[in-house]
Amino acid sequence: MMIAWLAGIRGKSLRVVSIIALCLISVAYLSSTFSGRHPQTVALDVGMSGARIVLALLAIFWVYELVGKELERKTIFFSLSYPVPRYYFWLGRFLGIFLLLLAAAAILAGAIYLMVYLSGLEYQQQFGISFGLSYLLVWLGVMLDVLTICAFALLMTSFATTPLIPIAASLIFMLVARSYGAVMAVMSNPASETADMASDFLPLLKTIAYVVPDLGALDFRSLILYGEPLVWSNASLFLGQSVLYACLALVISSVIFSRREFS
Fold first, then answer.
1. Which residue has the higher pLDDT, 39 or 64?
2. Considering only CA atoms, which of 153, 147, 96 is closest in space to residue 88?
3. In whole angstroms, what separates CA 11 from the centre of its chain?
4. Most CB atoms closer than 10 Å: which of 6, 20, 143, 242?
């Protein structure tokens, strides 16, 4: 775990995250200036969208950097030479990436908070943004979303022979898992323009729901954007689904890696 953490620090990844956070503040702040009303809401919405994309890409990048490269360059033999089970190495890498993602999320959360504060200096909107427990819940959903993507990337890396496969598969997984729930909701609505396509695509979407978690449901930003109450029965279901999926992916990838033959 500490090796992965130190490798991420030495790779100057968190410095890059700080630069990304600065760019994210600038983009979100400029977006809020184009809004005649509710600049804080616009700034927070754009900032959270950017943070979710950045953290997911960082998770995939760190899996490749700290695991995929070792497999590609055959330096994995040095790590496996220690007299410990292979899954120690695997889970250690996951925990190290988790710490890096946690640090990156803290930087981005602080940057977004500062940006929303600056957006409200010149215009006091009627319904202000209230930070607190709701903000922590939003970031809890973001972290579970990103960790699920990270676990899937590790699963792909555990048996892949080229680094391109885990990267491409993880990006596809991210897009599908974050979007299919919203698409299903739109198609299930009889009043929507896509209702006539429901008979063709809904069976496929329901099949995807059995094998892919609905990561889009972990986006809780409406709690602070519009003050909507959190439905705990639904939220706990999606949170539990993501945790179960991530744990299952980690267990399967650990077993595959433990039995993998290296040449």
1. 64
2. 96
3. 21
4. 242
**Residue written as token pair 């995939």:** 60
What tokens appear for 30 in the block? Answer: 């400029």
Q: Which amino acid is at 194?
A: T
Helix (H, G, I), strand (E, B) or coil at 129: coil
The number of domains in the chain is: 1
Separation of first and last alpha carbons in the chain: 25
Domain that holds residue 194: 2-259
Contacts of 40 (CB under 8 A, 6+ apart): 32, 116, 119, 120, 125, 128, 129
How is residue 66 annotated by DSSP?
A: I
* This prediction's pTM: 0.87
- DSSP 8-state secondary structure symbol assigned to residue 195: G
The overall average pLDDT reported for the chain is: 81
pLDDT digits (tens, 9 = 90+) for 105-121: 998 898 888 877 776 55
CA distances, 8 to each of 2, 34, 58, 140, 213 (Å) = 10, 37, 11, 22, 28
Say if CB 154 and CB 249 are below 8 A apart: yes
Tokens of 103: 């640090």
Residue with tokens 């899954």: 87
Which amino acid appears at position 95 of this protein? L
pLDDT tens column, 129-174: 777 788 889 999 999 999 999 999 999 999 888 878 899 999 999 9
Neighbours of 123 (CB within 10 A): 14
CA pair distance 158, 253, nearest whole angstrom: 6
Report d(CA 108, CA 120) in Å as an integer. 19
Rounded alpha-carbon distances, angstroms, from residue 189 to 41, 148, 185, 194: 27, 29, 7, 8
User: How much is the pLDDT for 154?
Assistant: 94
